[in-house]
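Name: RNA polymerase sigma factor FliA
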Amino acid sequence: MSVASEYLQLQRESTEEMVRRHAPLVRRIAYHLMGRLPPSVDVDDLVQAGMIGLLEAARNYATDRLASFETYAGIRIRGAMLDELRKTDWTPRSVHRKLREVTEVVRQIENETGADAADAEVIRRMGISVQEYHQILADAASARLLSLSAPEDDDDGAALDVADQEGLGPQDRIEQEGMRHALVDAIGGLPEREQLVMSLYYEQELNLKEIGAVLGVTESRVCQIHGQALIRLKARMTGWRDEAGNGERGTGNGGRRREAKATPPSQR
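Structure predicted for RNA polymerase sigma factor FliA:
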């Protein structure tokens, strides 16, 4: 069904009917988000916020949108859920601090060597145990607030989900588009296994257990790989706004492009 024909069908429905018909989408998105959140987060709170997002999507959908209603509604639903999570940040400040410390060490190693920062070197420089490092990776994978573009001392953040651009001004749209390009380049430079996990999780929407079955590893190992990828992206995106302002768009890592490399043995 084309977007135009779908819109005509939606026009014939009341807002209430549209919300009822697409309610399963809200629960599907909520449970997918729960896969990266701690047990203390109540899925019903996410569903309630998502239903508000669905209601807004039903009221605001228009024919000039290139996306189908389900795609548009999905973005609004995720946005409403993330807004709810931002209001009730459950992540301890100690977790934010450790994530910033690891991110900075990864950034330093990769800038010095021009290669992917290996786990063993990160652990050595930080003076921590393997178990503590793995816990930090798990925190990175589950923490809602691993912003890829916020200032380094900013505890607030944004998720990797594609944002709805409705309401953004021209400058904000340009900045967001620049961030998207920089993020695509940074993801393209991740080790192969980390790229695969990011694709399976964010694009194919598999959960950690399903990704583990695909890769032949445990669910906890997938969580670690996911955390590694997020920290590496955070490190490579550091300062991207300054670089964009200086005409160095496209890398988010000191203005130099990185080539995709095979996964180091220590990360396998």
